[in-house]
Give the backbone structure.
Amino acid sequence: MNLQTLFTPFPTLTTPRLILRALRPDDLDDLYAYASDPQIDRFTPWTHYQSLAEASANLDEFLAEYENGGMGAWSWGVEHRADARLIGIATFSPPHRHHRRVELGYTISRAYWGHGYATEAARALVTFGLEQMQLVRIEAVCLPDHVASARVLEKIGMTYEGLLHNYQIWRGQPCDLLMYAITHSP
């Protein structure tokens, strides 16, 4: 599978309520609106945007990645179809070329929590990863107290693999994370 070809142009994935697509410059206001919420700090390793300029710089990084062929992390903007606005981002980490595995991540606007949008977006990425990218393993981690994210991972067919002690530095401190994964045997 030639991933460069698969990601040129950047693939758009559709679900009943969402469009997962490349981020665009006109997403800035929506990106800032949801990612400047301090509540996001509770469950993400990054902190909320402090300014529109910070959001703009981050959006520029996403756009540059698409320009460079997208062979680093792949980030899809999660657009709510009915509202026609960006409500989150779903990502695959850079793939491990030899082992064909990635890490899945997602962030959804707090205004849209509790409606199954994270599950819908994550399921679309897992299907794309296993079927189109021919990945063998997709992993995801979450904080032990992030019950909603653990439920999302279980709903999309991931299996809990265990508690990873001091697995990641989280705002300067080592933290434990729960590991989930789904695998596919080609």
